[in-house]
């Protein structure tokens, strides 16, 4: 285990059992309360989107444009974070409602099936395992010392800023391994080509909706609506980047060699998830608009439990960690975010012998 935490096999087994018991108790309690919660969030999100688009149609008046853009951005954040991300994790499959199925298609240029493969399967199964979990730096950033430094790494603060602004596009390209596809034509596969066609179809629908259909419907206010949609998507992208990076790359998160996966027990899996993740605290609205990924530790432990349950589960998770001497990485959003930024800047410089470009 690539950390200072060393639990004996019996301690790991007990650690896993206590977390499994928490999981089973919570799942046994799922029901109408949880269904009402997510349906209420969906109603709020749709109301915000309707209000935002209506206000943008009168966007020639600056206050109206600002309110419309803010409402639309908020609706997009809620839809991606608390609804789309969580529903596609299968958190509401127990309702047997087709609208809450894991096949949900979100308001994002990344097709949901590709996201479920790159995120639900690859990332959550192989969290922070070097060379296996491609979310470790998103194939773009050096976020820990063992990753090779190249001359272009010095530009990674700029790469990070670009990724934040275009985050949905980075997510879309992730499952394809777009850098490899573009730089190594010989490695291109039929599977990659099929995925690119899927991204093209999904992106076309998203672009037509936000940047053609609604502006055209606005008539003389087309440019105001176009600008509002651009800013709303930018706000959603930057916020998503902030939440995801604060949950994965603050100081103190641990990465692991591939050998960690060999004969990994349930307790060891849980331990890897905790050591590789981080939380941030704040008021309930912050938890809501982060999709409750402010509790990234609990999310990595219990991916298919409705995320609004994470705050109450976190109290027990933290107590279990304290009992077994396992660190529980949490702090304010500001602390975690500036820790991430500091790491990105620090690791832009060589800290190990240069690797081949």
The fraction of residues in strands falls at under 5%
Question: What is the approximate shape?
Answer: globular
Rg (CA only) = 21 Å
Individual helix count? 14
Distance between the termini: 29 Å
Number of domains: 1
Instruction: Work out the helicity level.
Output: 55-70%
* Class per helix and strand makeup: mainly alpha
Average pLDDT works out at: 94
Low-confidence parts:
none
DSSP E strands, number: 2
The strand order across the widest sheet is: 1-2
What would you say this structure looks like, in words?
With about 350 residues, this protein is mainly α. It has one domain (about 10-345). Helix content is about 60%, strand content about 0%. The protein is built from 14 helices and two strands; from the N terminus they run H-H-H-H-H-H-H-H-H-H-E-H-H-H-E-H. The chain has helices spanning about 10-30, 30-55, 60-90, 110-125, 155-165, 165-175, 180-185, 190-215, 220-250, 265-275, 285-290, 295-300, 310-325, 335-345; strands spanning about 280, 330. The chain has a two-stranded parallel sheet. Helix 1 crosses helix 10, helix 1 runs antiparallel to helix 13 (about 310-325) and helix 8 (about 190-215) packs across helix 9. The longest helix has 28 residues, at about 190-215. The radius of gyration is 21 Å and the shape is globular. The two termini are about 30 Å apart. The model has no long low-confidence stretch (mean pLDDT about 95).
């Amino acid at each position: 285990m690539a950390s200072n935490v060393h639990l004996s096999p019996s301690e790991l087994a007990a650690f896993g059992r206590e977390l499994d018991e928490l999981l089973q108790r919570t799942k046994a309690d799922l029901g109408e309360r949880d269904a009402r919660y997510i349906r209420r969030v969906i109603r709020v999100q749709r109301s915000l989107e309707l209000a935002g688009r209506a206000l943008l149609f009168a966007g020639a008046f600056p206050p109206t444009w600002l309110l419309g853009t803010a409402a639309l951005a908020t609706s997009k954040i809620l839809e991606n974070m608390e609804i789309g991300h969580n529903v596609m994790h299968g958190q509401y499959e127990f309702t047997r409602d087709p609208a809450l199925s894991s096949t949900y298609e979100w308001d994002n240029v990344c097709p949901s099936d590709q996201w479920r493969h790159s995120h639900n399967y690859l990332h959550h199964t192989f969290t922070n395992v070097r060379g296996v979990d491609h979310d470790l730096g998103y194939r773009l950033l050096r976020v820990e010392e063992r990753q090779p430094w190249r001359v272009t790494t010095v530009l990674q603060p700029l790469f990070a800023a670009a990724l934040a602004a275009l985050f949905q596009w980075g997510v879309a390209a992730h499952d394809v391994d777009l850098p490899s596809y573009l730089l190594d034509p010989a490695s291109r596969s039929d599977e990659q080509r099929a995925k690119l066609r899927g991204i093209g179809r999904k992106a076309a629908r998203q672009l037509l909706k936000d940047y053609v259909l609604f502006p055209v419907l606005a008539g003389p206010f087309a440019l105001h609506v176009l600008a509002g949609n651009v800013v709303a998507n930018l706000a959603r992208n930057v916020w998503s980047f902030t939440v995801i990076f604060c949950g994965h790359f603050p100081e103190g998160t641990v990465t692991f060699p591939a050998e960690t996966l060999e004969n990994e027990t349930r307790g060891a899996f849980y331990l890897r998830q905790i050591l590789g993740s981080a939380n941030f605290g704040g008021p309930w609205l912050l938890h809501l608009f982060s999709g409750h990924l402010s509790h990234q530790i609990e999310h990595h432990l219990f991916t298919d439990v409705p995320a609004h349950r994470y705050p109450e589960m976190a109290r027990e998770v933290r107590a279990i960690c304290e009992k077994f001497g396992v660190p529980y990485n949490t702090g304010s959003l500001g602390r975690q975010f500036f820790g991430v930024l500091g790491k990105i800047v620090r690791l832009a410089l060589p800290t190990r012998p240069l690797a081949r470009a």
